[in-house]
Specification:
- This protein is α/β, with parallel strands linked by helices and 170 residues long.
- It has one domain (5-168): Flavodoxin domain (Rossmann fold, 3-Layer(aba) Sandwich).
- The protein has helices at 17-29, 55-62, 81-89, 98-102, 126-135, 156-168, and strands spanning 5-9, 32-35, 67-73, 108-115, 138-146.
- Helix 5 links the parallel strand 4 and strand 5.
- The longest helix has 13 residues, at 17-29.
- The two termini are 17 Å apart.
- The protein binds flavin mononucleotide.
Length: 170
C-alpha cells in the first residue's frame, strides 16, 4: 500500500466530471483509486447469494487505508446508483463479513459530490455521515463540487474548495 487514502468512485462514466475532480485530488494527495465500474457488485441480497462477487475484494482493500473517500456525481439530488449499490452492500460487513467490518474501526470517511449545480442540496451528505456513524467510522466531512460543462473546466471556486479539502485530509 503506497497511500493512506483510498478514493472509491461510483459514476455512470469512468472518465466523466466526477473523475476530473477526483484526478485533481489524486494529484495533490497521491491517493489510491477504485472505479466501481471496473468491478462486478450486485444489489444487496438478504440470502447473500452474491457473497463471491467483487464487493469483498474492495472491502478487503478498504481496511488497508486510514481514510476512505467516496466520490459520486449528483444524480437526481442523490448519490449515484453505482455508489448506492456499494453502500447497500456495506451491510455485508455487519453480517457475513463481520471481521472485515470490525477492521474499519478507527478509520475516517469522507464524501465528495460532483454536480452541475453550484449549490449543494440540503441533506445530500446525510447518508454518508450517518453510514459512517453506524459503521463506527469517523466522518471527516463533505466536499461539494461542480463541473462547468459549458466551458469544460473546473471552476476556480471549486479548485479552492478542493485545496481546502485535501489539506483537511489528515
Ligand atoms: C441521471 C442524471 C441525473 C442528474 N441529476 C442532477 C441533479 O439532480 N442535480 C445536478 O446538479 N446535476 C444533476 N446531474 C448532472 C450531473 O450531476 C453532473 O453533470 C455531474 O458533473 C456528472 O458527473 P459524471 O460525469 O461523473 O457523471 C444529473 C446527471 C445525470 C446523468
Amino acid at each position: 500500500m503506497s497511500s493512506k487514502t483510498l478514493i472509491i468512485m461510483g459514476s455512470a462514466r469512468s472518465d466523466g466530471n466526477t473523475r476530473k475532480i477526483v484526478e485533481v485530488i489524486i494529484n495533490k494527495t497521491k491517493a489510491d483509486f477504485i472505479d466501481l465500474n471496473v468491478y462486478k457488485i450486485s444489489y444487496f441480497d438478504y440470502e447473500h447469494g452474491n457473497k463471491d462477487d467483487d464487493f469483498v475484494e474492495i472491502a478487503t482493500k478498504m481496511v488497508n487505508y486510514e481514510q476512505i473517500v467516496f466520490a459520486t456525481p449528483v444524480y437526481w439530488y442523490a448519490m449515484s446508483a453505482q455508489l448506492k449499490t456499494f453502500f447497500d452492500r456495506l451491510s455485508d460487513l455487519l453480517t457475513i463479513r463481520k471481521s472485515l467490518g470490525r477492521q474499519l474501526g478507527g478509520k475516517k470517511m469522507y464524501s465528495i459530490a460532483c454536480s452541475s449545480d453550484e449549490v449543494a442540496y440540503e441533506g445530500f451528505s446525510m447518508p454518508f455521515k450517518n453510514t459512517a456513524e453506524y459503521l463506527g467510522v469517523e466522518y471527516g466531512g463533505h466536499l461539494h463540487s461542480w463541473y462547468d460543462s459549458e466551458n469544460d473546466l473546473i471552476p476556480e471556486s471549486v479548485l479552492w474548495e478542493i485545496k481546502l479539502f485535501c489539506e483537511g485530509l489528515s
